[in-house]
Amino acid sequence: MNPSPQQGREFPWWLLMAAGIAAYLMYRVVADDLYSRILITLSKGIWVTIFVTLVAFAMATGAGLLLALGSMSRFTVLRQLARFYIEIIRGVPMMVLLLYVAFVLAPAMVAAWNWLTGPIGLDPARTRDFSLMWRAIIALTIGYSAFIAEVFRAGLQSIDPGQIEAAKALGLSGWQRFRHIVFPQAIRTIMPPLGNDFIAMIKDSSLVSVLGVYDITQAGKITAAGNFRYFETYNVVALIYLIMTVSLSLLMRRIEKRMRRNEQR
Q1: Is residue 25 domain-resident?
Q2: Fewest CB atoms less than 10 Å from the CB: which of 30, 168, 204, 218?
Q3: Number of domains present in the structure of the chain
Q4: 0.70 exceeded by the pTM?
């Protein structure tokens, strides 16, 4: 059933209510000295959260695209390896993956590095020199690359095979077909779920606090443990995450609408 014009013009009351709550909390931050001090303390963790999210998402997007292409490869071994990785990683909870990478995979990587560089006389690396923040970034990259791979695969397979056959008939190479025919059309399908994954990663980045990485959540935990003002501290923590996620959600809706209008022209 198609939505009625009235439903299409429905006023976003939820956004008005969310804006009201955010405005009240912002007022408290400005007017209340306690809230102001909490925000100043948490601001140090905001940049860590942004850095971890941006770097992990960029790496996961690149890895996800390669995995998607591998899962669609004409080579059976490559297809099966890609599917194995995607299905296994998607079945592991992010918290478990984070702990596994931090305390199992990272030491194994350091040991492998020492084994490779030992014969050429380099000083052995130590596991404690492997930054916990980068362990968290690697874990988020591994976890989200599997989900992003499925986003890319669905978008690439949505292209009409007839267009690809026509491009082959015109003599375009595989890379030219991907660059000029497949990807420009697939990106319209890929962008909305890819944006949702980015927003989800911002929220999941809070899990890195279990490793002691000084992100927003960890800064909130330390602040609340020091001032015993849990209500005020976690109000500010929630406000920061809500501002980031709701703003990005609205931005993605705007981009999606613009892409839809361009497609209709």
Answers
A1: no
A2: 30
A3: 1
A4: yes
